[in-house]
Specification:
heterodimer; A: alpha+beta; Phenylalanyl-tRNA Synthetase, Chain B, domain 1; Phenylalanyl-tRNA Synthetase, Chain B, domain 3; 6 domains; 7-stranded mixed beta sheet; 6-stranded mixed beta sheet; 20 helices; elongated; B: 337 residues; alpha+beta; 2 domains; 43% helix
């Protein structure tokens, strides 16, 4: 709400500077978004007096003027306007002035006569909206003074919260200002002379649904002469942020800004004998004032006559009954509409207006007749109108009962945490027009809008001003007391209370893993959860990537990759119209961006969520995703750097898994599961009950792929990543003997994986503390397709020699199984 | 061989040994020489093998002589080892000398993202006051995101949250972390002290200070006698934890449908950046919301606050454009390490 301070001062005296006022309002909860000096753009525009106005020798359109702008300073100005005469005071743009539209005023020859400035129209100053004439100022306007100092205004822009519709008015803000300053609030009553004609002569009012239109008031004003509003009115509307249209429309807008009550003026001649408020008929058409023909819905409320809809109630008038130059008699409609209904209509037709904004927030019933009277009075003053006697009022007693809220001052103290006695609270409430006195006998304290508790004694009853529709319950009163007491006066205090029981920190494991990865040189990233269809289509976790036991705590897409995507009904753009199923496409997108920024090596990770639809509703799951490319670490001078490859990635994964004491195993990913994101020949399924997922090189057909650096991708579900702690390990007391190492070289026939061999080794050599692959090669003396795998078994005997027999037995069993199950042959063994 | 002959041999051996030692130039050669003279199969032992043929009374004399020889050789060896060893060490040091002023190869240093790190900082500070962390769901329903938080359908306060809806009716992406208040109150019993961090979504055009995805941290305390002054106490501590010991907060009235009274909180940390910056919204939990959470507002009171993580991170790190958080430029991340 833009509040011109000149308008405010009509209601209450304000000694504060605009800045002081803004601070005071902000601390009262009326946040000031900005302070503006309206007219501040009028540089080098001063007040002048026309000494002479005469004809131009060579141009009939132009006149020559002499303008006095100071005691002895007279300018010769050529002017094209006709509404000027000697003796008038007018705004003069001096040479060097810049007009609001950017035009520079220069000394100029106009048809052979020098002009030393420009006389300004209201439009040129962006001060009024009515066209061609020069803005004629008051005869008292001081000569030579900058124009802004005479007709400029200070405007403060208050961010009015949705609960305080009463503050969308000069009057409402004036009440708050008066409460701050202690200065009295003046009533701006306007006298209204009524004619002998009766409002009801030839006009009836019908309200078909009192729930949607609880009160409708009509007035009729005859003899109206439609014309531009007085300049001062136009300027005030401009300062408040509204355009001037005509004196009739301006009168309704002026009262809307002043009292907060929207009204609508109909051309009487376009309305039949009955004005009714009714639900629209399905499919009924209405051309609104913006000249859009709208198809109405049965849930829209319209103002209509016996023939057709005339206005969308509370939202916008209709073109057929619009006030025009030919209008001579108007109907002023001032109504209370159900806020929700107006809001729905405004939303349905994408028509948010100043009026609907106010109706949505609820309206004070008493304003309905008051605003109708005020508009009628302005029409008399500005347009020569004459109000017919009386009003049509559908519900004069609507919401007339006095409302009050019973509250417990002790509860107010305990909510706020201040020691302000009962009388002190009542006194504060009095400053905003709430009379609070001790409640007599038993009374009901509204704890919530739906629930009251009975109390006797220790309660006050506060009479709620009619304009404060937001005050309903005890807590509302507490807020008012706190606000008036001053939030800045609260003494901070730390809550003492029952101790809260222990709860594990859900991010404990996640934080350990994040720190682990950062320590390994990876950068943590946060990427968009909302992605494009293209990005989303690139990858989804394969259905069986995550075992059920792990999915239970970490979640997974129900039905796997084919599971439904979650798509937005109202996306901002197609680039972000659905929730991601996997973090990998977003991560790859960031890799690509970083490569473009010149990062030829890098490593990113994200802990984030994937999302998917299931029959039971939306599902969210938590994953760790990694993207790595280029060098693992920069090479030492003269050295060679290791590049990220599957082995380096597995080393990283093993490091992460070590926090859960998990040892990930790998099996080849079916080509279909690799999709278009992972290299079918260089990707693997990471499996295990604690850590599972996929890893691989980027698919060579991917647009981001390049020969070098290769990009590697990993996405893992980790038990406890969503919520869990790192494991507490059991200690091992090392035996006083050195470990035994045994190496074994095994030739694998084509098609047998190392993963299968290692799994077999772990099964048969269960007494080994570790089984490592230390060598892998093909060719040489090996047969076609054969590969030789070197396995190193480590054993920890309890005492010297104790384990020898068991070691031999286990290794023999493994060798036999490898031969039998895998068709492998043992090429040699050593160690001991 | 008699005693005299043996003595001559031994003395001769000693003489030759001393001369050999004096001309030996390496510690390893000295060790070799030493064992060839004094070792189990060394020259002295060899000579003494003939001792069995001597009369019994001569044998001790031979022992005395042999020990003298042995001692002399050992002493010579020791002395020579000392000087040769020192020279060798000097030579090794010179040989191995390299330029140690090279800068050293760069480490690959990783970094943690300012958003989760800021959330972590808030969690640690609030942990001091007994607040634990719970992370809720990001896909919400209209009822929990709005209605139970005292934001009815068709209420103008809905304009405060521009919402992204899923195609599935009634489902939306949470516009704030506040629905976590309802879920927490329904899942636990007072006393409650919890913070609820996480990602939120709004239908909002992206600029330097807005995004359609952002992060919030909700705080909720429900207890018997919680007050607005307690809220101020807690938020003062949070401000100090985030912005330094000089930081102060300023409370002014605000408006949120789910709190009553509602507060807008500004922070100032003195020093160069003077003035007040609005960092969060807060208030006493609205009795309707307590009731919707299954808590009787007659017996319990609570306060809640919600802050924008991006805004806090921007203030802490001097970031002027929040788009940097999702841009994930490694150069940006490295600088915040």
């Amino acid at each position: 709400m833009r509040l011109p301070l000149s308008w405010l001062r009509e209601f209450t005296d304000v000694q504060l500077t605009p800045e002081q006022l803004a601070d005071a309002l902000t601390l009262r909860g009326l946040e000031v978004r900005g302070i503006e000096r309206w007219g501040a753009t009028w540089n080098h525009i001063v007040i002048g007096e026309l000494l002479e106005v005469g004809p131009h020798p060579r141009a009939d359109r132009l006149q020559l003027t002499k303008v006095r702008i100071g005691k002895d300073e007279v300018l010769n100005v050529v002017c094209g306007a006709r509404n000027i005469a000697a003796g008038q005071r007018i705004p003069v743009a001096l040479v060097g002035a810049q007009m609001p539209d950017g035009r520079l005023i220069e000394r100029a020859e106009k048809m052979g006569v020098a002009s030393e400035g420009m006389l300004c129209s209201g439009t040129e100053l962006n001060a009024t909206d009515d066209g061609d004439g020069i803005l004629i100022l008051d005869a008292k306007a001081p000569l030579g003074v900058p124009l802004v100092d005479w007709i400029g205004d200070d405007v403060i822009d208050v961010d009015v919260k949705p609960n305080r519709g009463d503050l969308l008015s000069v009057l409402g803000l004036a009440r708050e200002v008066a409460a701050i300053t202690g200065a009295p609030l003046r009533s701006v009553a306007r006298a209204l002379q009524e004619s002998s004609a009766k409002v009801g002569d030839g006009l009836a009012l019908e309200v078909s649904d009192a729930a949607l239109a609880p009160r409708v008031v009509l007035r009729v004003v005859d003899g109206v002469k439609v014309a531009p509003s007085p300049d001062a009115v136009q300027m005030r509307l401009k300062a408040a942020g509204m355009r001037s249209v005509s004196n009739v429309v301006d009168a309704t807008n002026y009262i809307m800004l002043e009292l907060g009550k929207p009204t609508h003026a109909f051309d009487r001649s376009a309305v039949g004998a009955t004005l009714s408020i009714r639900a629209a008929k399905r499919g009924e058409q209405l051309e609104t004032l913006d000249h859009v023909t709208r198809e109405l819905d049965a849930a829209d409320l319209v103002v209509a006559d016996e023939r057709s809809a005339l206005a969308l109630a509370g939202v916008m008038g209709g073109a057929s009954s619009e006030v025009s130059a030919a209008t001579s008699s108007v109907i002023i409609e001032s109504a209370i509409f159900a806020p929700g209904s107006v809001r729905r209509s405004a939303q349905r037709h994408s028509l948010r207006s100043e009026a609907s904004h106010r109706f949505e927030r609820g309206q004070e019933s008493a304003l309905a007749p008051a605003a109708a009277d005020a508009v009628a009075s302005l029409l008399a003053a500005w347009a020569g109108g004459s109000a017919r006697a009386g009003r049509l009022d559908s519900a004069p007693s609507y919401d007339a009962a006095e409302r009050s809220v019973v509250y417990r001052p002790s509860r107010v103290r305990s909510l706020i945490g201040i020691d302000l006695d009962d009388a002190g609270q009542a006194k504060l409430l009095g400053t905003i027009g709430m009379v609070a006195t001790p409640a007599k006998g038993a009374s009901e304290v509204p704890v919530t809008p739906k629930r009251s508790v009975k109390v006797s004694g220790d309660a006050y009853r506060a009479i709620v001003p009619t304009w404060r529709r937001d005050l309903e319950i005890e807590a509302d009163i507490a807020e008012e007391v706190a606000r008036l007491y001053g939030y800045d006066r609260l003494t901070p205090h730390l809550p003492g209370s029952d101790p809260v029981g222990y709860a594990a920190q859900p991010t404990a494991l996640r934080d350990v893993i994040r720190q682990h990865l950062a320590g390994r040189g990876l950068h943590e990233v946060v990427t968009h959860a909302l992605v494009s269809e293209q990005l989303s289509a690139r990858y989804a976790e394969p259905a069986d990537a995550i075992p059920a036991a792990l999915a239970e705590s970490e979640g997974r897409a129900v039905g796997g990759s084919s599971a439904g995507e979650l798509i937005l009904a109202n996306p901002l753009s197609v680039d972000h119209d659905r929730l991601r199923r996997s973090l990998l496409p977003s991560l790859l997108d960031r890799v690509d961006a970083n490569l473009r920024y010149g990062a030829n090596s890098g490593a990113l990770f994200e802990v984030g969520r994937g999302y998917g639809a299931s029959q039971g509703g939306p599902v969210e799951w938590t994953r760790l995703s990694l993207a790595l490319w280029g060098e693992v670490e920069p090479a030492a001078p003269g050295g060679v750097a290791r590049a990220w490859d599957l082995d380096e990635v597995k080393r990283l994964v093993a490091g992460v898994a070590s926090h859960l004491d998990a040892r990930p195993a790998y099996e080849a990913l079916p080509d279909a599961a690799a999709g278009t994101l992972l290299h079918p020949g260089r990707s693997a399924h990471v499996f295990g009950d604690l850590v599972a997922g996929v890893l691989g090189e980027l698919h060579p057909a991917a647009p981001e792929w390049r020969e070098s650096p290769r990009i590697l991708l990993v996405e893992l579900a980790i038990r406890g990543l969503a919520s869990g702690s790192p494991m507490v390990r059991s200690a091992i007391v090392p035996a006083p003997t050195p470990p035994i190492e045994r190496d074994m070289a095994i030739a694998l026939p084509a098609g047998v994986t190392v993963g299968a061999l290692v799994a077999l080794a772990r099964t048969h050599v269960g007494n080994a503390t570790s089984v490592e692959l230390f060598d892998l090669f093909a060719g040489g003396s090996l047969g076609a397709g054969e590969r030789s795998a070197g396995l190193r078994f480590t054993f920890q005997p309890e005492s010297a020699g104790a384990a020898d027999a068991a070691v031999e037995t286990a290794l023999d069993a493994f060798a036999t199984a490898a031969r039998k199950d895998l068709g492998a042959r043992v090429r040699g063994a050593e160690g001991g | 061989m008699d005693l005299a002959e043996l003595e001559v041999e031994l003395r001769g051996l000693q003489k030759k040994a001393l001369s050999d030692i004096a001309t030996t130039e390496a510690v390893a050669s000295l060790d070799e020489l030493g064992s060839s003279l004094l070792g189990k199969r060394g020259a002295i032992t060899d000579l003494l093998r003939g001792i069995g043929g001597l009369p019994a009374e001569d044998r001790p004399k031979v022992g005395v002589i042999a020990n003298e020889v042995r001692a002399a050789i050992e002493a010579a060896l020791e002395a020579r080892r000392g000087s040769v060893g020192a020279a060798e060490l000097t030579a090794r040091i010179e040989r191995e000398r390299i330029d140690t002023t090279t800068p050293g190869p760069a480490p690959r240093l990783g970094s943690l993202h300012p958003i989760p790190e800021t959330i972590g900082a808030i969690a640690r500070i609030m942990g001091n006051f007994g607040f634990t962390v719970a992370e809720g769901q990001e896909i919400e329903d209209d009822v929990t995101n709005f209605q139970l938080l005292n934001i009815p359908e068709d209420h103008p306060s809905r304009d405060l949250w521009d919402t992204l809806y899923l195609r599935e009716p009634g489902r939306l992406l949470r516009t704030h972390t506040s629905p976590g208040q309802i879920r927490t109150m329904r899942a636990t019993t007072p006393p409650i002290r919890v913070i609820l961090p996480g990602r939120c979504f709004r239908y909002e055009a992206v600029d330097a200070s807005h995004g359609f995805e952002f992060h919030q941290v909700e705080g909720l305390l429900v207890d018997r006698g919680a007050t607005l002054a307690d809220l101020k106490g807690i938020l003062d501590e949070l401000a100090r934890g985030l912005f330094g010991p000089q930081a102060k907060t300023r409370f002014r009235p605000g408006y949120y449908p789910f709190t009553e009274p509602s507060v807008a909180v500004d922070v100032s940390w003195g020093g160069a950046k003077d003035g007040w910056m609005t960092i969060l919204g807060a208030g006493m939990v609205h009795p309707t919301v307590l009731e919707n959470g299954g808590i009787d507002p007659e017996t319990h009171q609570g306060f809640a606050f919600g802050l924008g993580v991006e805004r806090i991170a921007m203030l802490r790190h001097g970031i002027s454009d929040l788009r940097a958080f999702l841009e994930d430029d490694v150069r940006f991340l490295e600088a915040l390490r």
